[in-house]
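name: query_chain
kind: protein
chains: 1
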Amino acid sequence: MTPELRAEIKRQLTHDEGKRFKPYVCSAGKLTIGIGRNLEDVGISEATVDQLFTEDLNRCLIHAQRLFPHHWDTFSDLRKAGIINMIFNLGAVGFSQFKNMIEAIKQNDLKRIREHGAASLWAHQVKSRAQRVLTLIADEIDIYPNTENAK
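structure:
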């Protein structure tokens, strides 16, 4: 297929299908995104999963660096991973509400990091994930299973 034909087909299908950046239910009742991508029947590829993850991870990293501008480069990789995990799970706004915990991280107050994290609604909702993440942040120990698809 020539680049010109590809561009013409994209123009036509964008006109007919529309271009949506959030999932919607199409006229056939299927969950759809983008330019008519049927998520229910077609799903997404491994490459698309990786691309979405990379975009999300970069967004979380930028937020973490903004929250800890004078500390980020001094944190261990394990602490960074725990902070990014929380931001990924809670969103930037949700994580930013952990003001006491953020301050404890800045002060390297391990006891307060654990106390504020463990006492949160988030910890009660995600249970074992919170334990793993708080262990990364406070103790700088990785207790995750060594499998890619573990949950």
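note: Helices lie at 3-17, 46-67, 77-96, 99-106, 110-118, 121-126, 128-139.
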